[in-house]
Amino acid sequence: MLKNCVKMIVKHHVKGWNEFEALVTKLETEKKPINVFFSGDKDESGKSWCPYCNQAYPVITKVVETAPPESHFITVEIDRPFWKDLENPFRKDTRTHLVFLPTLLRWKGAQRLDGSQAANPDLVEMLFEDED
Amino acid sequence: MSVLSFVKRSAGIACRTVTIQHRKSLNNIRLTSIRLFSSNGESFEYDLVVIGGGSGGLACAKEAVQFGKKVAVLDFVKPSPQGTKWGLGGTCVNVGCIPKKLMHQASLLGEAIHDSQAYGWEFENPQSVKNNWSKLVESVQNHIKSVNWVTRVDLRDKKVEYINGLGYFKDVHNVVAILKNKTERVLNAKHVVIAVGGRPRFPDIPGAIEHGISSDDIFSLDREPGKTLVVGAGYIGLECAGFLKGLGYDATILVRSIVLRGFDQQMAEVVKASMEEKGVHIKMGTKPKSIEKLEDGRLLVKYAFNDKPDEVITDTFNTVLFAIGRNALVEDLQLKSAGVEVIDGKIDVDRNSKTNVDNIYAVGDVLYKKPELTPVAINAGRIIARHLFNDSDEIMDYDDVATTVFSPLEYGCVGLSEEVATERYGADNIEVYHAYYKPTEFFVPQRSVRYCYLKAVALREGDQRVVGLHFIGPVAGEIIQGFAVALKSGLTMKVLKTTVGIHPTVAEEFTRLLITKRSGLDPTPATCCS
Ligand SMILES: Cc1cc2nc3c(=O)[nH]c(=O)nc-3n(C[C@H](O)[C@H](O)[C@H](O)COP(=O)(O)OP(=O)(O)OC[C@H]3O[C@@H](n4cnc5c(N)ncnc54)[C@H](O)[C@@H]3O)c2cc1C
């Protein structure tokens, strides 16, 4: 139990591709699971331009609290014009290859949920708990 | 964050985790206490428990939940003798159709790269073009892993309970799952479906299990296969030898008696010849005797021709792949506890896919004398669910199932072989139309058209109902699928002959079949568009 108490999921929050890539490249070296939530960025009121992201956000936030401790969780906010550019690296980079926002995925893994799946607590829980 | 607040927060998280887990187990208890009542008042924990999460089992489970039923699927993969294991989804997804088709495609692309030069594509050092095995394996395995994941998402989404455990029968209504941590969980079920599939067989010769591999291992092999000996000439053996050759590895097949048993033997001969033309060595009438590992890691194989068993031939290979057949996985099931009968290591079912035990059904490769194909298992699995839970009287039609051998030059067929048609109707009552043809695309790169061949087996009388169609050539699977629909709809030669083709395609050759075997005329074409 004590062991559990000192280990916890490490949360990160970045905006845009460059910040994301720099962070994930650094975290990769730790060889711990990295789960990433790609979503539309939010306005002052905390709402995103991407409707499904707004649905997924509270679900994921809640599940993260009970996720396996030895892991990283990155929230990536992406602004609308950047995302709408079909040539943007989130879509084009073979490591992300995003098609939808939101997408929740295990970095370098097969686990991926997108669109309304990312707002399904059962599925989100399964993604966080899945061992590679 | 101070150390103290860090510890406090984490403690909070840890404790929350505990409460949630606690709540989960309470949920489980509550769930298990909700029992389902059958008409005679008996109660069960599950409406349906499926043993085996492959093509047939998953299809059955997913269909059953559509009718609001409580369903669990057990799936467990025992590692191969070489230690290969894989995820949820069964043979087809992990070690069958899917990786096989991808490696076949990789091999065809190699041919296409070669051909492309005649079509004007230029690249430096065409001779140095080679396949990178580990990259191919990585791509194939990544695709499989994403299919495993999507399958689990699908099950969770549809509320099919997936249990990663090895199942066996305690009695007719109770299936035990042996979980990863060796604990056992009893699942009480009204109906049980056996969908355990099969696994490759190894021959009883020295060194086979220790040094040999099978189709279970090849698609994730962590080293280049190199010079490979394939033992067995069923479709799996031919396909493996075919793609390995196409990827640039020396491939030899040992054939005990015939190639592609169960398929039309004239077509089988053509497939065999086309593989030999591509450089696959095929040794007919041979049997392996032993495999030894040499100091340098290579495998010394001793084999002999059936008619000269004492003249031992030796050769060395990097890989020996056994494709001599598959055994249904009935052993672990403890079928006796439920009274399910086994015939020749398989399970027989009635037209509703029911075994000799009233509430136990079976589907897929475990079945006695049924085609071992994924779409067959899927269809039959769905029909079982509709029969059990939706009062459907639909029965699985095992006749005229189309299939394709993905040899380098593919062979697709539907319906009867010429032999079976002859036996069933008599030689005098059937007419066989056949032709060699020349795919337009083959001319430019001067690819061999020698083995591009097709035939239609029809009844002789009246409009000549077609009972079998056979095609060897590119994309045979894509072609035969549509013709299978026609055949099942009662296709006649009269209709086939009045159908206008799509030019230039290879599929149109079926509409141009005019020469009968009986006429003795030459079935080779003179020019491309005559
Ligand atoms: C190399 C190869 C290529 C193939 N190519 C094709 C093709 O191109 N087209 C085609 O249609 N078919 C192809 N097949 C055949 C196809 O894969 C099978 O027909 C199909 O997978 C059968 O489905 P199934 O549901 O009967 O069993 P499977 O898909 O084999 O699934 C059975 C599952 O049950 C599990 N299991 C077994 N025992 C237990 C137990 N006691 N408890 C829990 N779980 C258990 C197994 O581990 C497995 O995961 C190919 C097969 C091979 C080997």
Automatic annotation (TrEMBL), chain A:
Question: One GO CC term of this entry?
Answer: cytosol
Mention one GO molecular function. Answer: protein-disulfide reductase [NAD(P)H] activity
Per its UniProt record, what InterPro entries does this chain match? Answer: Thioredoxin-like_sf (IPR036249), TXNDC17-like (IPR045108), TXNDC17_dom (IPR010357)
Which UniProt keywords are listed? Cytoplasm, Disulfide bond, Redox-active center
Answer yes or no on keyword Disulfide bond. yes
Q: Where in the cell is it found?
A: Cytoplasm
Report domain Thioredoxin positions.
Answer: 14-130
The similarity annotation says: Belongs to the thioredoxin family.
Q: Quote the PANTHER family the UniProt record gives.
A: 42-9-9 PROTEIN-RELATED, THIOREDOXIN DOMAIN-CONTAINING PROTEIN 17
Output this protein's name.
Thioredoxin domain-containing protein 17
Organism from which the protein derives? Clunio marinus
UniProtKB/TrEMBL annotation, chain B:
The record's GO molecular-function terms, alphabetically, read: flavin adenine dinucleotide binding; glutathione-disulfide reductase (NADPH) activity; thioredoxin-disulfide reductase (NADPH) activity
Q: Where is the active site?
A: H503 (proton acceptor)
**Which residues does the annotation say bind NAD(+)?**
G232, A233, G234, Y235, I236, G237, L238, E239, G325
Catalysed transformations (reactions): [thioredoxin]-dithiol + NADP(+) = [thioredoxin]-disulfide + NADPH + H(+)
Is Oxidoreductase among the key words of this record? Answer: yes
User: Is Lyase one of the keywords?
Assistant: no
* Localization (cell): Mitochondrion
Tell me, in a sentence or two, what this protein's role is: Thioredoxin system is a major player in glutathione metabolism, due to the demonstrated absence of a glutathione reductase. Functionally interacts with the Sod/Cat reactive oxidation species (ROS) defense system and thereby has a role in preadult development and life span. Lack of a glutathione reductase suggests antioxidant defense in Drosophila, and probably in related insects, differs fundamentally from that in other organisms.
Name the NCBIfam families on file.
Answer: TGR
**Protein name in the entry:** thioredoxin-disulfide reductase (NADPH)
Origin organism is Clunio marinus
